TrEMBL record:
Keywords for this protein: Cell membrane, Membrane, Transmembrane, Transmembrane helix
Localization terms from the record: Cell membrane
NCBIfam families attached to this UniProt entry: ComEC_N-term
Domain Metallo-beta-lactamase: residue ranges: 554-754
A Pfam family that the UniProt record links to this protein: Lactamase_B
Signal peptide residue numbers: none
Transmembrane intervals: 46-65, 262-281, 356-374, 386-408, 420-439, 446-469, 481-502, 514-533
Membrane topology category: Multi-pass membrane protein
The protein's name in its UniProt record: ComEC/Rec2 family competence protein
Length: 811
């Protein structure tokens, strides 16, 4: 290239306005407010001192600012923090008025009045014969107990029998009888309520009544379509997932499509953008179009329920539109920060919600990265429409991926292609679905006609989700911060490779770095850390496995290796196919013993599948025989002896030995036990597998855990602990501190409405420095090696079994 040509190229590259610097002042204030909100909502006992200290420090900084003119940014951060602390103080004081927390500690019963603030969601049954249950959020307004009435304003989580609560909807005023209980620290709800009878329901009128009519109209407009369409289209339009098939929900979760059914900024952007476009076609001026957008946004919030997530989506959706409309995307950063700051001041508990984190990050990616990336692709020759269809999900995935890894330590390499594949269908499905919704009250037949093509779009999205979930492309990463760092590194590799490839046309010297990056990335993904992270190459299971936690959904099934093709099975999960498949993969032909810790369905429901085609030595059971489950166990065992165990008993099977630490023989004498008593009758074993000690706790709750702790062998530690009751909050930290496990195994379903594993339980495990293995995120998990060289491996969730696993914990 001649000097003149080089000068021309340089001059061409310099054309255009200089880059606009990114304004991070409000971003710093938003981050500071976020941290303060997170800490303050978890420690309400320190609120007054925190607010006083923040206000005092703010006064000092303002004084310095007035004298020296310095410290404006610090003052801005302190203003944001002080506003958040004031909001937390005000809302916490209002929520706990009437002494509701003290009443909860005393487990007071009475008649409550409340306003429903979230639609009910179904809960799985805990044991045979138990009626279906639901969970929902309410705001308690009064309590009539012991002849006195207290006025309340307490957000609460309600657990109730589903029979009369299924038809309760957001905005209803309800009266019911129930008993108060305490909530976990940091939760939005200050109490929980176990409900007895629903006394009365008063339906709302006006806009709320119209909202429910419209939602019902949409469900009726697609009533004749497939189950996928009936469940998915209302979710796409208004976030109504009440009819979404559990297996489709699991498939969408595994490939990163669940954001489509959560009312998000993209929903509001599509809806409001459509209204603005229609107003433009109708000849409305700029100001009139803004009015139409504002009215449409408010109307959509009412239609989709003004819950915190929807309000967040409305604000962020508006920001997303502003960012995409802006000529320079960096201008969107202050707007995003301002929106986040307003939301945190209005609702500080958002700081603890992953949904809020992902919403802010996705919106930031939209306004900061999507446009320049799309323009870069366009300059490289990619059609503009395709460039934006690729840039938007890639930008969101790049920014949100590390955070998602904290929730689910796995990366599915088809997530971005799946999002790109469904992108053309999301807009038409949402807009046509909204049109059908608005048309349904006045012309139901016309609404069904309009909903028909929207249903095709929804069916395409469902088909993509199911097909992508079947592909063995889930890559496991380490849990926690390490996994987030791995995902961030992989993301940088991808972006670096793409950037290098796009620069090929500027000179052949750039090809080799690009190819090297592509090869490194391909090797990292094709070797597939899943089904294991850090394990040996080769098929599952590892050849020297000792303990395996089977992924049976919301249930327990732990396998202890007792011989080359033999094992001891502790619990059989809720499903015969799931537990049978796990044993088949391990090559187990003989069960030297089966131990059923107690008779709840999520521990004995799969027994037939475990026994099928295998020799069985003995079946050991809890001394508390709960019918009819105990009768079915005896029937399925056939001629195999069924022997109860109690504290003090010992046993051996092949290479496995055990000592029973609970329950006491008196457990057999309990009559008409409730669920907690059945849990506390769980067999608790301290087993030895080739020198590796394993503590198996069943669903033991606090009472039995304390009893086990009282009889714990002096000086003994457990290498592996099966965490009690799927990681529920009913744990005794001292038991885990005494056991000092190196590995903690949590048998829990990816789809469960109990909130398992509880954050408080994970904190207890973190205090022991144990490596936590979770079947919801790791699939089948294994402990292998020897006592001196213990290591852990994960098979990874199997999407082909997602439907079966989801049956036992969906809500």
């Amino acid at each position: 290239m001649s000097a003149a040509e080089q000068s021309e190229v340089v001059g061409a590259r310099s054309v255009g306005p200089p880059p606009v610097p990114v304004d991070l002042r409000l971003a710093a204030a938003a981050v500071g407010a976020w941290g303060v909100a997170f800490l303050a909502t978890g420690r309400p006992d320190l609120l007054v001192w925190g607010f006083a200290g923040s206000a005092l420090l703010l006064l000092v900084v303002l004084g310095v600012l007035r004298r020296t003119g310095r410290g404006a940014r610090v003052a801005l951060v302190l203003v944001a923090a002080t506003l958040v602390l004031f909001s937390v103080c005000l809302q916490h004081s209002r929520s706990t008025a009437g002494g509701v927390e003290e009443l909860a500690e005393r487990r007071v019963s009475g008649e409550f009045s409340a306003v429903v603030t979230a639609d009910p969601h179904a809960l799985p049954t805990r044991r045979d014969g138990e009626p279906p249950r639901v969970v929902l959020d309410v705001r308690l307004t009064s309590l009539d107990a012991r002849g006195a009435t207290r006025e309340l304003a307490a957000p609460a989580t309600v657990f109730a029998v589903a029979e009369r609560w299924r038809d309760v909807r957001w905005g209803d005023r309800v009266t019911f009888r129930g008993r108060l209980g305490t909530a976990d620290p940091g939760e939005r709800s200050v109490v929980v309520v176990s409900v007895g009878d629903l006394v009365r329901t008063d339906r709302p009128t006006g806009l709320l009544e119209l909202s429910e009519t419209l939602r019902t109209g949409l469900r009726e407009a697609v009533s004749g379509r497939s189950a996928d369409v009936r469940g998915l289209l209302p979710g796409l339009v208004v976030g109504d997932t009440s009819a979404l098939p559990p297996d489709l929900e699991a498939a969408m979760r595994s490939v990163g499509l669940t954001h489509l059914t959560a009312v998000s900024g993209s929903n509001t952007t599509l809806v409001v953008g459509f209204l603005v476009l229609a107003a433009s076609w109708a000849g409305f001026g700029r100001r009139s179009r803004l009015v139409v957008a504002g009215v449409g946004l408010v109307g959509f919030v009412v239609l989709a329920r003004p819950e915190p997530s929807v309000l967040r989506a409305a604000v962020m959706g508006g920001v997303g539109m502003a960012g995409l409309a802006a000529g320079r995307p960096t201008r969107g950063i202050p707007v995003v920060a301002a929106a986040a700051l307003v939301l945190l001041v209005a609702d500080p508990w958002l700081a603890r919600e992953f949904g809020f984190v992902l919403s802010v990050l996705a919106t930031t990616a939209l306004v900061l990265l999507a446009r320049p990336w799309a323009e870069r692709l366009t300059r490289a020759g990619v059609p503009r429409v395709v460039a934006y269809a690729v840039a938007v999900p890639v930008a969101a995935q790049a920014v949100c991926g590390p955070v998602v890894a904290l929730l689910q330590p796995a990366v599915n390499v088809v997530s971005v292609p799946a999002n790109i594949a469904v992108a053309p269908a999301v807009g038409p499905a949402t807009v046509l679905g909204l049109a059908a919704t608005l048309l349904s009250p006045v012309w139901p037949a016309g609404a069904a006609v309009v909903a028909w093509p929207a249903g095709w779009c929804a069916a395409w999205i469902a088909a993509v989700a199911r097909a992508a979930a079947q592909a063995p492309t889930s890559v496991a990463v380490p849990p926690g911060v390490a996994g987030a760092l791995v995902v961030a590194l992989l993301t940088l590799l991808v972006l670096g490779a793409v950037a290098a490839v796009l620069r090929w046309r500027h000179g052949p010297g750039r090809r080799w770095p690009a190819l090297a990056l592509v090869l490194v990335l391909s090797a990292a993904l094709l070797v597939r850390c899943a089904p294991r992270w850090g394990g040996p190459a080769g098929p599952w299971p590892p050849p020297d496995w000792l303990v395996v936690g089977c992924d049976v959904g919301q249930g327990d099934a732990v396998v202890l290796r007792s011989g080359p093709r033999a094992a001891v099975l502790v619990d059989a999960g809720p499903d015969d196919v799931l537990v049978g498949g796990c044993l088949d993969r391990l090559g187990v032909d003989r069960l030297d013993a089966v131990v059923l810790t107690h008779f709840h369905a999520d521990h004995v429901g799969g027994l037939a599948g475990a026994l099928a085609g295998r020799e069985v030595g003995l079946v050991h059971v809890s001394p508390l025989a709960v019918e009819p489950a105990a009768g079915r166990v005896r029937e399925q065992a056939g001629s195999t002896p069924v022997v109860p165990l109690t504290a003090g008993d010992t046993g051996a099977a092949g290479a496995v030995t055990w000592t029973v630490l609970g329950p006491e023989p008196e457990a057999a004498r309990v009559r008409a036990p409730d669920s907690a008593q059945v849990n506390d009758s769980s067999l608790v074993l301290l087993a030895d597998v080739r020198g590796v000690r394993v503590l198996l706790t069943g669903d033991a709750e606090r009472d039995e855990q304390r009893a086990v702790l009282a009889r714990w062998p002096a000086g003994v530690v457990a290498d592996v602990v099966k965490v009690a009751h799927h990681g529920s909050p009913t744990q005794v930290p001292q038991l885990y501190a005494t056991a000092r496990p190196r590995v903690a195994l949590v048998e829990v379903g990816a789809v469960n409405d109990y909130g398992h594993p509880a954050a408080s339980t994970l904190d207890v495990l973190a205090a022991t420095d144990a490596r936590v293995l979770r079947t919801d995120t790791g699939g089948d998990v294994a402990v292998a090696g020897t006592a001196s060289t213990l290591r852990t491996l994960e098979r990874g969730p199997d999407p082909r079994e997602a439907e079966r696993r989801a049956r036992y914990g969906s809500g």
